[in-house]
Amino acid sequence: MMTSKLVVPKYALVAVVLLAFACSLTSAYDPSPLQGFCVAIDNPASTVFVNGKFCKDPKLVTADDFFCSVNIPGNTSNKVGSNVTAVTMEQLPGLNTLGISLARIDFAPRGLNPPHTHPRATEILVVIEGTLHVGFVTSNANDNRLFTKVLNKGDVFVFPISLIHFQLNVGNTNAVAFAGLSSQNPGVITIANEVFGSNPPINQDVLTKAFQLDKNLVNYLQQQF
């Protein structure tokens, strides 16, 4: 009796191998970080932070765990004329593991929310009152292109994750905006504060060459932050 031999086309074998490889990559994918860094430690008794927060016993959860009020305007009496009221898992414990957060931004006339980034979140902004000039800058790979728009009440704008962006009140009255962020702990890096206000200060030779500035001006800027 003759036995038949199953012949599998080469492209089918390649497809199976690629599928298996893709599955192995998917199962090995790490969750997004929720803080700037997380140093590995072997001793559980010495751990403090986790990628998020420890969870409350569901039997002890109340409606207040999912509630927070942002109806009070922030104090804009500062150098930049703006105030950000954050609503992250720190202010609203029920946000833990949900991957979202919010911020209320108040602007005095001509107030500025300075150039900054959110290392772990995309931001979507809606103007509630006033007129804002907003924008973001793309990465070096995209030629550092600047995208800007003037927003009025009811307008919406999105800032891609980790890109430098800003909002400026171009009106003569107060302005208010709300921002939704795609992380329960988006983080914020205000560029000027980070560069000129680091502790300890960045070597002035570094800043002088990086920004092509006179050392006296660098010294002045470091004193401001």
Describe the structure.
Strands 1-2-9-4-7 form a 5-stranded antiparallel β-sheet, with no helix packed on it. The protein is 19% helix and 25% strand. Residues 21-28 have low confidence and may be disordered. The chain has a domain at 59-187: Jelly Rolls, CATH 2.60.120. Strand 5 (132-137) and strand 6 (146-151) form a beta hairpin. The protein has 4 helices and 10 strands, in the order αββββββββββααα. The chain has helices at residues 10-27, 191-196, 204-211, 215-224; strands at 82-87, 101-107, 112-117, 123-129, 132-137, 146-151, 156-159, 165-169, 175-181, 189-190. The termini are far apart. The chain has 225 residues and is of the alpha+beta class.
Can I get a quick summary?
The protein has 225 residues and is α+β, with helices and mostly antiparallel strands.
